[in-house]
Amino acid sequence: MKVRELETDPLFNSGRGSALTEKGTVEMEASIMDGTKRRCGAVSGLTTVKNPVSLARLVMDKSPHSYLAFEGAEKFARQQGVEVVDNEYFITPDNVGMLKLAKEANTILFDYRIPTSGFETCGQGVESPMKMNGLPMSIYAPETVGCAVVDREGRCAAATSTGGLMNKMIGRIGDSPLIGAGTYASDICGVSCTGEGEAIIRGTLAREVSAVMEYKGLGLQEAVDFVIKHRLDEGYAGLIAVSNKGEVAYGFNCNGMFRGCASEDGFMEVGIWE
Ligand code: ASP
């Protein structure tokens, strides 16, 4: 998976370029799930681990647990010898500026509420392209990263990595490391979510896609549409998904979602809007 590369690129909200806490620090989280045996690993509250998704993978492969957080996760990182850096490495000038904006507006910013001129924003009656609920929003807010993959045998996996929400409280844990919320994979599909973590957690969004496929017999895109429509109350989010048949689907209930798709035969596609 390429989640590591996205973590290393400061343009995304994960690893270097992560959203900042209310204190201007970085607390990262990530998870990974292998759908074949429903194996999973997750980490939260990382402050020095260069590639959180790799540590999530080590939790899955090399620890007796599914989820490690804060000091315990940092200690495990050192035991496993993963690359660590100072917390400042993750902090970019763009994000320092965005945190200032969030503090001035007394709000928490996340990429999914990006109102853009000419686009309806989730039907929320946005007054001006740069405001949401009367608060200014940045159009440059970076995005959480995630990946859903299927191999030629139909084995699905998914991973998600994030810095969370800009101006979040210290210790806040979002959906991205929570198996079933931000990430899920089964023998049927793999799903990775992004958007307002609290809404994704309430909707157990990623697991729900697999559940409606399993229990209602829906196809992948139908399942994604169903979940976006019925499981996202009062929150904006999106997800990418693959099925064991090699299908690819996505859905979101807001302006757009940065996404891409690539297959072994060379097909590549990227998109932002519907
Ligand atoms: N879902 C992430 C969180 O709430 C944020 C995002 O996707 O941008 O932590």
Structure overview:
The chain has 274 residues and is an alpha+beta fold. It has one domain: 4-Layer Sandwich (Glutamine Phosphoribosylpyrophosphate, subunit 1, domain 1). It is 26% helix and 24% strand. It is built from seven helices and 13 strands. A five-stranded mixed beta sheet has the order 3-2-1-7-6. A four-stranded antiparallel beta sheet has the order 8-9-10-11. The protein has a two-stranded antiparallel sheet with strand order 4-5. A hairpin with a 4-residue loop joins strand 1 (28-34) and strand 2 (39-46). Helix 6 crosses helix 7. The chain is globular, with a radius of gyration of 18 Å. The two termini are 25 Å apart. Bound molecules: aspartic acid. Residues 13, 110-111, 143-144, 162, 164-165, 174-176, 182, 194-197 line the site of aspartic acid. Aspartic acid (ASP) binds next to strand 9. One of its GO terms (molecular function) is beta-aspartyl-peptidase activity. The active site is at residue 144. Substrate binds at residues 172-175, 194-197. It comes from Trifolium subterraneum (Subterranean clover). It holds the Pfam family Asparaginase_2.
The total of beta strands comes to 13
Order of helices and strands: HEEHEHHEEEEEEHHHEEEE
CATH A-level architecture: 4-Layer Sandwich
Mean pLDDT, all residues: 89
CATH superfamily: (Glycosyl)asparaginase
The total number of structural domains is 1
Topology overview:
Layout: H1 3-8, E1 28-34, E2 39-46, H2 52-62, E3 67-69, H3 70-80, H4 93-104, E4 131-132, E5 135-136, E6 145-150, E7 156-162, E8 183-185, E9 189-195, H5 197-203, H6 205-216, H7 220-230, E10 237-243, E11 248-252, E12 259-262, E13 268-271
Bound molecules: aspartic acid.
Residues 13, 110-111, 143-144, 162, 164-165, 174-176, 182, 194-197 line the site of aspartic acid.
